[in-house]
Structures are given as C-alpha cells and as structure tokens.
Amino acid sequence: MTTIQRVGLLTSGGDAPGMNAAIRAVVLASTHYKIEVIGFKHGYNGLINQDFFKLNPQQVHGLINQGGTILKSARCKDFHHKNGLKQAANTLIKENIDALIVIGGDGSFNGLLALQQHWSGQVIGIPGTIDNDIDGTDHTIGFATAVNTAIDAIDKIRDTADAFERVFIVELMGRHSGQITFNVGIACAAEQVLSFENFNTTDKLARLNEIAKDIEQAQKTRQSSYIIVIAENLWPGGAHQLAIDLKQHSQTDCTACILGYIQRGGSPVAKDRIIATKMGVAAVQMLIENKSNIMIAEQNNALTTIALTTAVKHQKQVSNSLIAAQKNILAMSAQSGV
Ligand code: F6P
Fold first, then answer.
1. One of 15, 106, 131, 133 is an active-site residue; which one?
2. 131 is catalytic
C-alpha cells in the first residue's frame, strides 16, 4: 500500500458520454480515501500549460447525467514531442502529483506511456471513447450512448425513408473501427452494413455494382425504404461521394446523411453511467494498491485490469459472431422478402 496524497485527473481525445460520470466517481472515491484530486483541463494541454484546479465532491454533484466533460478535452500535438512531455512532467513534479488518471482512448494511453519516460508517478487509464475500439475491454465509456443515439436518429430517418420509399446512406463514426456501424446496423435493421470488416473498397466499380444491384433487387420485391449504414473513412469521400458515385454508376438515387458529432454528445445511458462509476472507483482503488501502468477494463461483465501496453498494441476487432449475426439476419430478411 502506498500513501497517495494528490492524484491528477484529465480527459483526453474525443469526449464521450459518461466521462463526467467517471470524473464524479474518481473524485468521490478519492475523497473517501483522503486523496486530493487535481483536474487538468483540455487533456494533456492542461499539464503542459499548468491549467488545473482542485476538484471537490460539491463540484461533481449532478454530474452523472451530463454529456461532454467538465475537464474539457483535446488532442494534444505537443505531447508527441519530447519538450511537451518534459513540460508536463515538470508540472506534475512541481505540483506534487503522485499519480495520474487519464480517461480517454488508445491515443491518450500512448501519451501516458510516453510521459513515463520523464515522470515516475503511478499511471492508470480509464477507457473512454465512443468507438469501443480499445483492446482488452468489452466496453468503453460512451459507446452504448453513441449506439443508442445513432439508433434513435436512424429510426427517425426510417420514417421518411418509408414514406418516400427512398434509399438513405447513413455515415457513422468509429474512426477505423466498425463497432458502432455493426451494432447500429443490426439494431436498425439496415439493409446494408458497410464497414472495414466486411467491405473492401479497392475495386470501387465492382462494389458499386453490388450495392446498386442489391438496392434494385430489394426495391423490385418490396416497395419500401432501404438504409445503408456506412463507417466513416471507408468509402473515399464518404457517404456523400458514395451517393454521387451510385447515381453516376447506375442512376440509383440515394440521400446521404452524416450523423457525425451528435453521436458524441448527450446524456449517458445507464450502461455508460454504470461502467464509468465502477471504473472510476476501481482506478482509485488500484492506485491505493500500488498498481500502475494499467487500464481498468470490463470483461464478461466483471471489472479487471490489463497492462496499458497491451491495451494499445492492437485495435480491438469487431467479433466474428457480430459480423455473422448481421449477415445472417440480412439473408433471412431477403429470403422472406421483407
Ligand atoms: O474517437 C472518437 C471519434 O469521435 C471518432 O469516432 C472520430 O473519427 C473522431 O473522434 C473525430 O475526431 P475529432 O473530434 O478530432 O474530429
């Protein structure tokens, strides 16, 4: 057991619903163990620019249901350079910070690992990103809310698509991972799910042929809506370009819709509030147990920890069973003509 007196806390990278709930949990747990919490603002920039304030339990009251992050967030370019890392380490030393908890994604954890070349305090990561692409944890904070927000939006788009018997192409976030796309695609009964894991864009013409054929076939058999969900960064030029390409290729009319940042905001759903709370408390307890260089994770509904180096090694893959589930239900739906 160590005697930690001051812990630094920051949120880094894309904000995610539930980050505030995690901040609340870290502050309440730390206060319980008589540890002072210093919140650094704007991600790692707060360390470099000495932009921080003391967090107390009063400040986190009413925070559990708020989207965004009261600590603000940022992607910090200076943290890719030795100077930035040294400045950050100097702030931590000067402010007598014993440990640092970072809520963020894999980029943020790489920053945490790099910081250790210049600072010897304890470090703990809490996975917070809507992308759910961090290896070693079944869930990241924010993913469940983002999926639900996208489902809600597409259900509404479906009404218009049904009314006009129209084809929509809806672009979803996820950077280079199809976790959001596959989950939302299944949950919205999308007629096509196009993502990195099941769709190769190297032969664009062949792909356009396939998509156009499927749309044509579906509209022949049932006069209804047709929704394609597509992962961002998959089709060169995105959903709008795919709509243009389909029109040029086969006169197929599609309406493109990019859901974008609405997926990052909003009040966190139950799942995100609960894992954020559990992970925030666990992070503080791990510090007290003298653990460092770990990420708090959830596996099979139980909390665990994994080495930060393992968490950042590979991007988490979409499971084969999820990909198969989407493929199977689509085939069943086509077979039954609905
Ligand atoms: O990592 C979360 C995420 O929202 C990704 O889904 C998306 O690709 C990216 O962040 C957008 O980043 P930025 O906020 O820097 O535009």
1. 131
2. yes
Query: Does residue 1 surpass a pLDDT of 80?
Result: no
CA–centroid distance, residue 265 to ligand 1 (Å) = 12
Domain that holds residue 111: 6-142+268-311
Q: How many domains would you assign to the chain?
A: 2
Q: Are 297 and 307 in contact (CB under 8 A)?
A: no
Residues contacting residue 14 through CB under 8 Å, at least 6 positions apart: 73, 105, 129, 130, 131, 264
- Domain containing residue 91: CATH number: 3.40.50.450
| For residue 275, pLDDT beyond 90 | yes
Is the CB of residue 92 less than 8 Å from the CB of residue 100?
A: yes
**Mean pLDDT over residues 97-118, rounded?**
97
Q: Are residues 136 and 277 in the same domain?
A: yes
Please identify, among 247, 264, 281, the residue that sits at the C-terminal boundary of a domain: 264
Q: What would the pLDDT profile of 146-191 be if each residue is shown by its tens digit?
A: 999 999 999 999 999 999 999 999 999 999 999 999 999 999 999 9
Residue whose CA lies nearest to ligand 1 atom number 7 = 175
Q: What's the gap in Å between 334 CA and the centre of ligand 1?
A: 34
CB 122 within 8 A of CB 100: yes
165 and 256 part of one domain = yes
Binding pocket residue ranges, ligand 1, CB within 6 Å:
14, 75, 105, 129-131, 173-175, 232, 264
**Last residue of some domain: 230, 264, 298?**
264
